[in-house]
Amino acid sequence: MRKAYCWLAILLSFGIILPVAAQTQNAARADFVVGAVTAVGADGTRRALAKGSALRSGEAVMTGEGRAQLSFTDGASVSLQPKTEFRVDEYNFTGVADGSEKGIFSLVKGALRTITGLVGRANRDRYQMRTAVATIGIRGTEYGAEFETGLKVTTTNGEVEVCNQGGCTSVKAGESVFTPDANTRPAYIVGGANLPATPPPSNPTLFAGGEVRTATGGIPIPTLPSGPGYSVVYSGFDDGIGFALDSASGTATFDQVGGMSTFSDGTNADKATTHVEAMTDGAVAWGRWAGGTVGGNPVTNVHYVVGVPTPASAVASLTNTVFPQGVGKASYGLMSATLPTAANGTVGGALTGSLTVQFGATTNVNTTLVIPIGGGSYTVTNTGMTGTFPAFSDPGASMACSGACVGAASTAKISGSFFGPSAERAGLIYNFGGATTLGDVTGAAVFKR
């Protein structure tokens, strides 16, 4: 790629300007997402940023422990690191840089790396990246920014200039500066913004659009093939019986972005009518149907985890495997989760949690889930959950709540399974009675070791 000489001006501001709520234009597409990444609308509405999802003008992205890569319609690319909040305040691009284009963004916290597109290239004043202490203007360059107590800027291609009330400092490719506050001139530093090249994590979630590549140009892991041999755990709300948790084995079909579109156990055929969350890593798939049918009955908010179950015969070798945690004892980290939903339609925030297992003649599973929804934070804890391997379940996991909890239940239900030849993945569904105004709450979580 030819390196272009570019100009970057950083002018201090003393607050974050709120996004224009009226803007609803699709600005970008999620090309790469790992973990529970959330998009938040100007009105506070939350949704999971799933592969292929559009990001609209006025929305923010919160990565939590995950990461995401966005492709904007003007050709720009933005890679968001964990614990980052990034907002698209105003965006307009009609396909040409005719003066009507605009890209106003906010880095509220965290770190990002970006290669800019056509917006701001010909008309530099049409692009701004705002933080609480500085505003970054660009023209066709590649740079990284990290904002916590001050702003670090690292230039990769081109040249930038960082300015505040203390003066200006020119930053060429390979150089970095730190802007501590509004009155101190930006100074050169050794080691810039904490922005490693975005690596594909183990079995990453990938998003398709034309030729699909990982963030580093690698070949993506394929989605699950449609066919027999799958196991699914799921929950949903049936107007006739309320919330139901279940599991089944049979044939699954998957759509072009990896979401499960149908499942049949040979007797009942389940089908999605509206898919709002769909994620896969090539080993399992998980997501949420806003609407569909299960056993011929209409259901809403169906959360699921599906994959090829770990064969029962694998438990013998797993029992004798020396894991870092001990013989037959393995620890799983949260890979991703659907956003929790309640019977009254409320959608919660990003779940956090962990899972450990002691493989053996009786396999014991321990989980901790923290689920934010409706002003309350629900902690579901289980020890010694068992089942017929690879499945596990507990109809009475303990639960505690802080915040808005009036009417909340004291126990929760969990149903899950191990997936992969050697239990490389674990997936589960949870369900509990939330605060009175919420009704039942449910969701899905996926773990990996």
How is this structure best described in words?
The protein is mainly β and 449 residues long. It has two domains: 9-188, Jelly Rolls (Sandwich), CATH 2.60.120; 227-448, no CATH class. The protein has one helix at 315-320, and strands spanning 9-11, 26-34, 38-40, 46-48, 54-56, 60-62, 67-72, 77-80, 85-92, 102-115, 127-130, 135-137, 142-147, 151-157, 159-164, 167-172, 176-179, 187-188, 227-238, 242-254, 260-264, 269-280, 284-294, 297-307, 322-323, 326-327, 329-337, 341-342, 352-358, 364-373, 376-385, 391-403, 411-419, 425-433, 440-448. The chain is elongated. The protein starts with 8 loop residues before the first strand and ends with a strand.
Indicate the proportion of strand residues.
over 45%
Number of helices: 1
Q: Report helical residue fraction.
A: under 10%
Task: Give me the Rg, rounded.
Answer: 24 Å
Number of domains: 2
- Low-confidence regions: 1-23, 196-221
State the separation between the terminal residues, measured CA to CA.
38 Å
Major beta sheet summary = 18 strands, mixed
